[in-house]
Specification:
About 55% of the residues lie in helices and about 0% in strands.
Length: about 170
């Protein structure tokens, strides 16, 4: 990446390797070079977005890597959304399981997981790639879960709130 020190020459490879995309037609007819760039051109409705979505999914899922999608106009935003959706699908189970461990309620764990992904999305511009993304995500999950438990303990149970709202009248027997 542009923010890291370059890879030392003794760890670099001078040979060209094929990057297996998982899409047979690309791997056979127009293979991509590992670490290289690829372009996709075509008219309206020929499936460029579907192909890019599948390539991003394969990159994130099979290779556990990062995918950079550059296009023009609307396609850049779509590429970001597709990459984000693939990342959320891949990690939502781990986030939910960790949240459930802390909050002990499936419904509340889903709420915490949703809150976590919103916080992560908002924090992406500040994420420094010196560490790994997954530990950063799980740290946010842990913090959000603990905060959720603290907020839950700070508020009275719902039945106490209902009882406090009802006027107290002495019961008279006839």
């Amino acid at each position: 990446t542009i923010h890291r020190e370059p890879v030392p020459l003794d760890r670099q490879s001078a040979t060209s390797e094929i990057f297996h995309t998982g899409i047979k037609i690309i791997d056979v007819l127009s293979p991509l070079e590992r670490g290289g760039k690829g372009g996709l051109f075509g008219g309206a409705g020929v499936g460029k977005t579907v192909l890019i979505m599948e390539m991003i999914n394969n990159m994130v899922g099979q290779h556990e890597g990062a995918s950079l999608f550059c296009g023009s106009g609307e396609r850049c935003r779509e590429g970001d959304e597709l990459a984000w959706e693939a990342l959320v699908r891949r990690l939502q189970g781990r986030v939910y399981a960790l949240a459930l461990h802390y909050v002990r309620s499936p419904e509340e764990a889903r709420d915490v997981a949703q809150e976590v992904f919103i916080r992560v999305w908002r924090g992406l511009p500040n994420f420094e790639q010196t560490g790994s993304f997954v530990p950063w995500l799980l740290k946010i999950t842990r913090t959000s879960s603990i905060d959720h438990v603290r907020r839950r303990k700070a508020r009275p149970p719902a039945e106490d709130l209902i009882a406090a709202q009802q006027p107290r009248h002495p019961v008279t027997e006839i």
